[in-house]
Amino acid sequence: MNKTIDDIISFTKHRPWKMPNNKWFWYQEWNDAIFLHYQIEETILRNLVPHYLDLDQINGSYWISIVAFTMNKIHIRNTFQIKYFSNFHEVNLRTYVKNKNKPGVFFLSIEAQKILPTIMANLLSGLPYKYSNIKRSSNSYALLGKRSKIDIEFNIANKIDNPQNIDLWLTERYCLYKNSTVYQNPLEIHHKPWELFHIELKNLDINYKKFSGYVNFNSPSLSHYSPGVKVIAWNQQKDS
């Protein structure tokens, strides 16, 4: 594990700002990730994001993304993983924001596969985790929850050797923000750059009730696959 951490920490040339000086707190792996990206109207998005955050945009466009992956080996520094709690499937719906010109993500929805890890994630991270029935295979992802339904079948295509600005803008994010009046500073993360692949979508049936009529989730503007990244994360600091 120490070698893995050293490998992550030593690779920083891609970061938009320096890593925090204090010790990292969490280790986790985000594996077999599918990204589905959609443009959305600014006025719709503004009502969904806390007002202390600025909406981030690229070329005048605002985006939300579905990210489906398998969480592995999550544990606190100097502890060990517990298989049931440390490994589960997750689907989040996120958008792109800034605070004090530091770009990050804000989660509109986070759904996890196991009940107890969902409860623990809520308590420890303060993020809005909800339990949903999630199943996946090497080329499919299915979710059935109270607020959403997702059914994806795909094939992994060729590697993206030279990611465009939009590919990097949508994936290379090194902090996240919460809907909180106490914690408005970002929660910092670090990992190596995502290794991205094109995907061929064979079947797509997605419905988020909250966004009905606003976004056609069955027609993404852009999509990616990645085998994953190894991640370290810091505790979020209260505002000074």
UniProtKB/TrEMBL annotation:
PANTHER family hit by this protein: DUF2071 DOMAIN-CONTAINING PROTEIN, DUF2071 FAMILY PROTEIN
Protein name: DUF2071 domain-containing protein
Domain of life: Bacteria
InterPro entries found in the cross-reference section: ADC_dom_sf (IPR023375), DUF2071 (IPR018644)
Species of the source: Leptospira vanthielii serovar Holland str. Waz Holland = ATCC 700522
